[in-house]
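Fold this sequence, please.
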Amino acid sequence: MEPIEPFIAWTPSHDEEERERYLEEYKKRLHNLSESPSIPYHPSSHYDEHHQLKTEYR
């Protein structure tokens, strides 16, 4: 499982049409999760004992 970029909706409750649009976009997003961009993360082996990213991976 990989983390994906968040879905953000700004104040969807203030405007019913806007809310409907956000919900439709969110529905499409959920149906196509495999196509959503993932957030890259380094494996724990890339960090030192102080939990800092090792120089060679910066």
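Residues 24 and 44 are 37 Å apart (CA to CA). The chain has a mean pLDDT of 91.
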